[in-house]
Amino acid sequence: MTGRHRAIDRVHRLKAENTDLTCALNTARAAIAVLTAECKRLEGQLDTAGIDLSGARSDLEKAVAEIRRLQQQHIDDTVRMARLRRDLHNARPRFVEVPATAERPTAPDSVPLPHAA
Questions:
Q1: Measuring CA to CA, how many Å separate 43 from each of 37, 39, 87, 97?
Q2: Residue 110's pLDDT is what?
Q3: Under the phi-then-psi rule, with left for phi > 0, alpha for psi from -120 to 50, and beta for the rest, what region is 108?
Q4: Is 116 helix (H, G, I), strand (E, B) or coil?
Q5: How far apart are CA 95 and CA 117, in angstroms?
Q6: What integer pLDDT is reported at residue 100 of this predicted model?
Q7: Computed from CA positions of residues 80, 84, 86, 90, in that sequence, does the dihedral angle turn out positive or negative?
Q8: CB 116 within 8 A of CB 104
Q9: Which alpha helices (DSSP H) does 1-117 contain, by range?
């Protein structure tokens, strides 16, 4: 082969390689477009999930605050009930024995009954 034939073969090889690289570039561009669309879709989903998560976190904080309030109310109610029971017990009339030495003169076998003072 002469130098001219080698140059022509080289040109054909370079054209074929250029065609292959152009196809690979177009394939890569299509893949990039698909990945870009997927990325945008996922970003939208992440934004939505972030909003949902912040709402759930807010709801959780409200629920925790309500639980703490109810726990404290339960404690306060228990203390109040104990105080009311004590007050009720202390308010009941107490019967005490009163020593009675006086007997009725008309009833010699009478038994004196105690009465509250």
A1: 10, 6, 65, 87
A2: 61
A3: alpha
A4: coil
A5: 9
A6: 67
A7: positive
A8: no
A9: 3-91
The answer to whether 117 touches 99, Cβ cutoff 8 Å, is no
| Overall residue count recorded for the chain in this entry | 117
Cβ neighbours around 64 below 10 Å, total? 10
Tens digit of each residue's pLDDT, the chain (117 residues) = 566 778 888 889 999 999 999 999 999 999 999 999 999 999 999 999 999 999 999 999 999 999 999 999 999 999 999 999 999 988 877 777 777 666 555 555 666 666 655
Query: Per the structure block, which two tokens stand in for 92?
Result: 């009941």
Distance CA 64, CA 60 (A): 6
- Token digits for 63? 């629920």
Determine the 3-state secondary structure of 72 from DSSP: helix
